[in-house]
Amino acid sequence: MNKNLSVDHLLGIKDLNREDLEIIFKTADSFKEVINRPIKKVPSLRDITIANLFFENSTRTKLSFELAEKRLSADVVNFSASGSSVKKGETLIDTVNNILAMKVDMVVMRHSTPGAALFLSKHVDARIINAGDGTHEHPTQALLDAYSIRERLGSVEGKKVVIVGDILHSRVALSNIFCLRKLGAEVMVCGPTTLIPRYISELGVKVEHNLKKALEWCDVANMLRIQLERQDIRYFPTLREYTMQFGLDMKLLKSLNKEIVVMHPGPINRGVEITSEVADSHQSVILDQVENGVAVRMAVIYLLASKIRS
Ligand code: CP
């Protein structure tokens, strides 16, 4: 197997091929072993400096990237838009070029604008990793989600995955659809009609508006957060009504004639899309997803850094 990725940046899953995904997962397998050792570090990236630029809020992704970089022994600088000169009107390119003038090799960026990572990759001389660009893509989330399915079920190929909730505003949904389809899974989306984009079936996914039917079909249910901060109009009457139709509780989970795997990218709205009992049950892999995020991000950073040196 060719050990190099076909891309110079990780802007979206759309740009990757299946071999890229397999290389990332195999590399992540080695790093998962590293992060479970007493000394959770390797010296691989001692010559690399990485800037984490977060223009939007984050807990998991930001911490996970920083830990991944430190476990690889990279030098790390962190930047948040709040408290920076962005507030004084500095442009994205000027901000990044000033950071790069301090000899940074790689930029991990979260931004509220779809396409921001692509834009940056065309204007600055550094490897760019998209840590979420608005409603567009969140590639490392999809990679860690697929990696977690592979870990729990042995493979992704042939598995049936339903993504439930706010598909319209979800970069996690779009990246997951690309990733799971490339890996040979069957994908369904489920949610209120108003939160399912009309073009979605062109991406090769099934559409279902009845949660029980969707759960009866699937092996894995990925329960998305309702993103009220991205909803400029009302897409459903009240959160309570959303939960009654699309929330997953123990009664519904136990009514199925099989054990499905339950996922959630976080942050969870406990009691809205998923109850605490389900989130904390043995069928949930939510914390495995978080653990796997570090290994998968180590793999992505390591593989892109090898391309800087080659
Ligand atoms: N899953 C995810 O992207 O979480 P954060 O917004 O906390 O980074």
Written overview of the protein:
With 310 residues, the chain is α/β, with parallel strands linked by helices. Helices cover 40% and strands 15% of the residues. The strands form 2 sheets. Strands 7-6-5-8-9 form a 5-stranded parallel β-sheet, with helices on both faces. Strands 2-1-3-4 form a 4-stranded parallel β-sheet, with helices on both faces. The protein starts with 17 loop residues before the first helix and ends with a helix. The mean pLDDT is 94.
Characteristic key phrases:
globular; 15% strand; 9 strands; 40% helix; 4-stranded parallel beta sheet; alpha/beta; 310 residues; binds phosphoric acid mono(formamide)ester
Strand-helix topology:
Layout (H helix, E strand, L loop, with lengths): L17 H18 L13 E6 L5 H12 L3 E6 L11 H9 L5 E6 L4 H8 L3 E7 L5 H15 L6 E5 L6 H12 L3 E5 L15 E3 L2 H7 L2 E4 L15 H8 L3 H6 L5 E3 L12 H4 L6 H24 L1
Parallel strand pairs: 1-2, 1-3, 3-4, 5-6, 5-8, 6-7, 8-9
Helix pairs in contact: 1-11, 2-11, 5-6, 5-11
This protein binds phosphoric acid mono(formamide)ester (CP).
Phosphoric acid mono(formamide)ester (CP) binds next to helix 2.
